[in-house]
Design goal:
Strand content: 15-25%
Oligomer: single chain
Shape: globular
CATH superfamily: Divalent-metal-dependent TIM barrel enzymes
Mean pLDDT: 93
Largest sheet: 8 strands, parallel, barrel
Number of strands: 12
Number of helices: 9
Strand order of the largest sheet: 3-4-5-6-7-8-9-12
Order of helices and strands: EEEHEHEHEHEHEHEEEHEHH
Radius of gyration: 19 Å
Helix content: 25-40%
Structural class: alpha/beta
Low-confidence stretches: 3-7
C-alpha cells in the first residue's frame, strides 16, 4: 500500500514478485476540520491522505468565480499542496448542464470552461461534475430525469465543455448518480459514445449508482459498471451507506453496508495508482475510513481480494 511518503510495495516476496502501484487515497478538502486552506491541507496530510479533491466553492476563504480563476491563483494553491506533498487529482464544478434556461446554461458552461482553464494551470488533470436534472431546481424528477429527452438535453450542454477540455489538455469527468440524468452504467456508456472524446471520462462512485429500487441487484449493478465503463474510469469515489426504511443515508467507509471488494479488485487489476477519494467523512472518522479501505486492499497477504 502507498505510504505517507508516496512509496509503493511489491505484491508478494522474492525476485519474481510483481511490483504494484497502489491506489492513492484522498479526501475532499472541504471534509477536513475547519480552518484556513493551509491548515486543511496540513490536516489531510497528517491523516495519511496523499491527494485532495478540491471544490473551490465549498471552501471558506477561496473563490470559484470565473473572473478570479487566474494562473497566479492556481499556482498559489499548487504551491500550498506541493508543500504538503498532496496531489490535486480533481477540481469539482457541480453545476447543472441540463438547465432549461438558455442564458443560465451559457453562464454555467462558461463556469466549466473557466474551471478547465484553471485546472490546466493548477496541474490538475481533471474537472469533475455530476449530470444534473432537466429543471432549474436541479431536483430529481422520477418521470423526466431518466428520459431520453433529458439525456439529449444534458449531452447538448456537455459537448461544448468537453471540446474546451480537449483544447486545454484536461479531462472532463462525469459521475453517474441514480437520481441524476446519467443514472446507470448503460446510460453512461451511451453518453461516452455520443460525445466520443478521449477527454471525457468517468468518476466511478459505486454507492451513487445504488438506490432502494436496485439494491437487491447491487453486485450486478457494480459489475455492469466495471464491464461497460472500466476503460474510461479515471477516478473512484468511496463512501458507505445504510438502508433506513426507504432512505439510503451515506457515511464514511466502514460504517455501513457497502461491500468494496469488487471495486478494490478492479482498482488493483486494472487501474494502477488510481486516485480514490473518500466522501462523507468527518474529521474524527476520516483516518479510520482510510485505514479500513487499506486493510481491505491488503487482504490475503496483499495478493488478491
Amino acid at each position: 500500500m502507498q505510504t505517507t511518503n508516496g512509496s509503493s510495495a511489491a505484491a508478494g516476496q522474492g525476485a519474481g514478485a510483481r511490483w504494484e502501484i497502489p491506489p492513492q487515497i484522498g479526501i475532499r478538502l472541504h471534509d477536513t476540520a475547519p480552518g484556513t486552506p493551509e491548515e486543511r491541507l496540513h490536516a489531510a496530510r497528517a491523516q495519511g491522505f496523499t491527494c485532495v479533491h478540491l471544490a473551490l466553492s465549498k471552501l471558506p476563504g477561496l473563490t470559484a468565480q470565473s473572473d478570479a480563476l487566474t494562473p497566479g491563483y492556481a499556482l498559489y494553491l499548487k504551491h500550498m499542496c506541493d508543500r504538503e506533498q498532496l496531489d490535486i487529482p480533481l477540481l469539482g464544478c457541480y453545476l447543472n448542464l441540463a438547465h432549461p434556461d438558455a442564458d443560465e446554461l451559457a453562464k454555467i458552461r462558461e463556469r466549466y470552461v473557466a474551471h478547465l482553464r484553471f485546472a490546466a494551470a493548477l496541474g490538475c488533470g481533471m474537472v469533475g461534475t455530476e449530470t444534473g436534472a432537466p429543471n432549474a431546481a436541479y431536483k430529481y424528477d422520477p418521470e423526466r430525469s431518466h428520459s431520453e429527452e433529458a439525456l439529449e438535453i444534458f449531452l447538448r450542454g456537455l459537448e461544448p465543455v468537453v471540446r474546451a477540455a480537449e483544447r486545454f489538455g484536461v479531462l472532463m469527468a462525469i459521475e453517474p448518480v441514480y437520481k441524476h440524468i446519467v443514472w446507470n452504467p448503460r446510460v453512461a456508456r451511451q453518453a461516452l459514445d455520443s460525445i466520443a472524446s478521449p477527454n471525457l471520462r468517468i468518476i466511478f462512485d459505486p454507492v451513487n449508482l445504488l438506490h432502494p429500487d436496485n439494491l437487491e441487484r447491487r453486485e450486478e449493478v457494480i459489475e455492469e459498471a466495471i464491464d461497460l465503463l472500466g476503460p474510461d474510469i479515471a477516478m473512484i469515489h468511496l463512501k458507505d451507506y445504510r438502508v433506513e426504511g426507504t432512505e439510503m443515508p451515506c457515511m464514511a467507509c466502514g460504517l455501513g453496508e457497502m461491500d468494496y471488494r469488487r471495486v478494490l479488485r478492479f482498482a488493483r487489476e486494472k487501474k494502477p495508482g488510481i486516485h480514490m477519494t473518500m466522501e462523507n467523512t468527518k474529521p474524527d472518522n476520516a483516518e479510520a475510513a482510510r485505514k479500513f479501505i487499506e486493510r481491505l486492499y491488503l487482504e490475503e497477504d496483499g495478493r488478491s481480494l
